[in-house]
Write a structure and sequence with these properties.
Blueprint: H1 13-26, E1 35-36, H2 38-45, H3 49-61, E2 65-68, E3 72-75, H4 80-106, H5 112-131, H6 134-151, H7 155-173, H8 176-195, H9 199-218
Antiparallel strand pairs: 1-3, 2-3
Amino acid sequence: MTNLRAITRPGPLRVEVASAIKELIVTGEYKFAQHLIESELASQLGVSRLPIREALQILARDGWIDLKAGYGAYVHTPTAREIDEVFSVRTALESEAAFQAAQRVRDSQVDIEELDSLKAILHTGSHEATNGVDKEIVDHNATLHSAIINLSGNHVLSEMTGVIEGRVRWYFAAIAVKRAPASWEEHGGVVEAILKGDPEAAKSLMAIHCDRSRRGLLALPG
């Protein structure tokens, strides 16, 4: 008889709580260096303090928060080196994704529906850049970048960018509102190059865009 794979059971509550807190950090609801109070987290997430305490241990292990003896948990503040490392990888991966997306457009390997979807994301994001709230701006930014990666048709690129996607969203949330107008203007240039089927321009413009976000983060006080 063929061996069947065991049915996966729901994960421990501490893992689910850690995921929920991580999402609040990623979207910028909890800011760099913000003190996380166990009782407040428990009330917000509707759980007891024990899974909160266990979740904070998980997040500390993975670098999302810092546990300070006698003081509690604080959202981790990334160092300049951490930002540089993440954004250097992001620039390499996403500029290549833009290049390959434009190649596929040039070679007529992309459905019209995919192009229409990219245009719609750009239109919505450009509107939210001046009218949206922090989380919407961060989410739309991530959606556009994800659409370009998907348009590249490269599953390895998609997998690799997924590894750092959470940290990119987290870092970007700190400058999302300030960067939004310029960021979406840059997005427009990247999308235009892709739609024209110009791989070199798409790659160059995406690299410039990613680097400007990196420099914006490094310019933050502290």
